[in-house]
């Protein structure tokens, strides 16, 4: 295992109490000596965790309404689904972040829930839950398959950065499009962000959030509505198993979870300088998914795009302590999940343009950093992390991923990294010859 902040543990520092030897699996590394979570945390980490959760709830989480309508689920079943996602991902994210001292964000499979909009209608929900359980078991087994986890770790750093940039760029595009719809509101948020970056960089995104809320109110752009304050009660669902559900749900959900979440999720972490062992994370998410399935929720996976908020420099000035931002995200996710209906209503108050601007600006630094890492020629310490002059592999990844192309139900992010690796391999053969 290698993490970028291990540079802080030089040979000289390793002799002091600032570093410690740490053994994970069969790998021994030097890392900053562990302090308590409360010692490591910082207000910027709390804010990063909150913003990651707010953007998640304002975006992917509202997809539950589409699934509810398509599958004719009750309000109680839909809120239980959301409860299972938020509370259990919060728990597993906190556990993994504390275990690895890296910012590990867990979420549900967004490609999976998109699949369920079309695959769930006509299927008894008990059979769907049975498929969720089988998919959880398959994800756990993937975490025990060493060749697969080694393949994930072998992705070159600059190609992981290119994949991350392609995942993030649409958020910047949407922020610009929001400016075209609400120029005054979004313009105020943009000006606030760049002024904040100059004079108070740690608080730039917080200022954007405050200005966005205030400007939305002053401009009459938000949608005030009664917000019910009531806890969400999970509904335990007894699973049923059928061949139809295994073929139509369990196998596709597993494939989408791996290609659409885990692969880009590990790419995001690598792009930000963190390389956790994939196996333990896959197994932990498999166990968490099994627990979530019993309250009607599909696969819980590794976070991808939102992970940039808790793993980038704005989350904490010290890379070795950014894990605290992911822990705060887990805490807020649990709190939001306990009152799922209440917080979904709250997210509906702000206009979509303000939320698009907040997401695009919060992820802008990560977007720029990933683009720079993807195309900066050089050579990393590992010999496999930096782009080679004239290489087109990173450009291919970005082009294929942004195209949105999908084959066999597998999304563009997977085909993007596959195409980039193929070009990278061909270029390596040419250089060797």
Structure characteristics:
433 residues, mainly alpha, 2 domains, two-stranded antiparallel sheet, 20 helices, globular, disordered N terminus, Benzoate_Transporter, transmembrane helix
Number of strands: 6
- The rough form would be described as globular
Q: Kindly, what is the distance between the CA atoms of the first and last residues, rounded to a whole number of angstroms? A: 31 Å
Side-by-side strand order of the widest sheet: 1-5
Give the radius of gyration: 21 Å
Count of separate DSSP helical elements = 20
Order of helices and strands: EHEEHHHHEHHHHHHHEHEHHHHHHH
Let me know the average pLDDT: 80
Q: Spans of 5+ residues with little confidence (pLDDT < 50)?
A: 1-32, 379-383
Residues in helices, as a percent range: 55-70%
Keywords: Membrane, Transmembrane, Transmembrane helix
Organism: Deinococcus radiodurans (strain ATCC 13939 / DSM 20539 / JCM 16871 / CCUG 27074 / LMG 4051 / NBRC 15346 / NCIMB 9279 / VKM B-1422 / R1)
Protein name: Benzoate membrane transport protein, putative
InterPro entries: Benzoate_Transporter
Write up what this structure looks like.
The chain has a two-stranded antiparallel ribbon with strand order 1-5. A two-stranded antiparallel ribbon has the order 2-3. By secondary structure, the chain is mostly helical. Helix 5 (75-100) packs antiparallel against helix 15 (323-338), helix 10 packs antiparallel against helix 11 (204-218) and helix 10 packs parallel to helix 17. It has helices at 11-14, 37-40, 43-58, 63-71, 75-100, 110-119, 125-142, 146-153, 157-181, 183-199, 204-218, 243-271, 278-293, 307-311, 323-338, 340-347, 352-362, 364-375, 393-403, 412-432; strands spanning 2-3, 19-24, 27-32, 106-108, 274-275, 300-302. The chain is globular, with a radius of gyration of 21 Å. Mean pLDDT is 80; it is low at 1-32 and 379-383.
């Amino acid at each position: 295992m290698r993490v970028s902040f291990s540079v802080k543990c030089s040979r000289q520092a390793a002799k002091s109490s600032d570093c410690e030897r740490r053994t994970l699996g069969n790998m021994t590394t030097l890392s900053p000596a562990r302090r308590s979570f409360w010692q490591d945390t910082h207000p910027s980490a709390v804010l990063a965790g909150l913003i990651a959760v707010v953007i998640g709830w304002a975006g992917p989480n509202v997809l539950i309404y589409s699934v509810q309508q398509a599958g004719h689920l009750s309000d109680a079943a839909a809120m239980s689904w959301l409860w299972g996602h938020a509370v259990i991902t919060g728990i597993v994210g906190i556990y993994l972040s504390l275990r690895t001292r890296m910012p590990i964000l867990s979420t549900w499979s967004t490609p999976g829930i998109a699949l369920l909009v079309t695959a769930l209608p006509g299927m008894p929900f008990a059979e769907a839950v049975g498929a969720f359980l089988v998919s959880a078991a398959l994800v756990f087994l993937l975490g025990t398959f060493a060749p697969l986890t080694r393949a994930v770790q072998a992705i070159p750093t600059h190609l992981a950065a290119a994949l991350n940039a392609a995942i993030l760029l649409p958020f910047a595009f949407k922020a610009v499009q929001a400016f075209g719809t609400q120029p005054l509101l979004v313009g105020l948020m943009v000006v606030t962000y760049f002024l904040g970056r100059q004079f108070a960089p740690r608080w730039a995104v917080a200022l954007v959030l405050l200005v966005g809320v205030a400007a939305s109110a002053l401009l009459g752009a938000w949608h005030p509505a009664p917000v019910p304050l009531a806890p969400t009660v999970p509904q335990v669902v007894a699973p049923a198993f059928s061949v139809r559900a295994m073929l139509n749900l369990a196998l596709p959900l597993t494939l989408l979870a791996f290609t659409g979440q885990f692969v880009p999720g590990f790419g995001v972490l690598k792009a930000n300088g963190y390389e956790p062992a994939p196996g333990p994370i896959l197994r932990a998410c498999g166990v968490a998914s099994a627990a979530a399935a019993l309250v009607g929720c599909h696969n819980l996976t590794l976070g991808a795009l939102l992970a940039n908020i808790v793993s980038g420099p704005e989350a904490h000035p010290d890379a070795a302590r950014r894990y605290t931002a992911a822990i705060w995200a887990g805490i807020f996710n649990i709190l939001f999940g306990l009152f799922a209906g209440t917080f979904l209503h709250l997210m509906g108050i702000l206009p979509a343009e303000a939320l698009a601007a907040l997401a695009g600006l919060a992820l802008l630094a990560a977007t720029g950093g990933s683009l720079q890492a993807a195309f900066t020629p050089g050579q990393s310490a590992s010999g496999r992390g930096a782009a080679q002059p004239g290489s087109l592999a990173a450009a291919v990844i970005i082009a294929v991923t942004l195209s949105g192309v999908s084959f066999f139900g597998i999304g563009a992010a997977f085909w993007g990294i596959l195409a980039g690796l193929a070009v990278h391999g061909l270029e390596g053969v040419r250089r060797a010859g």
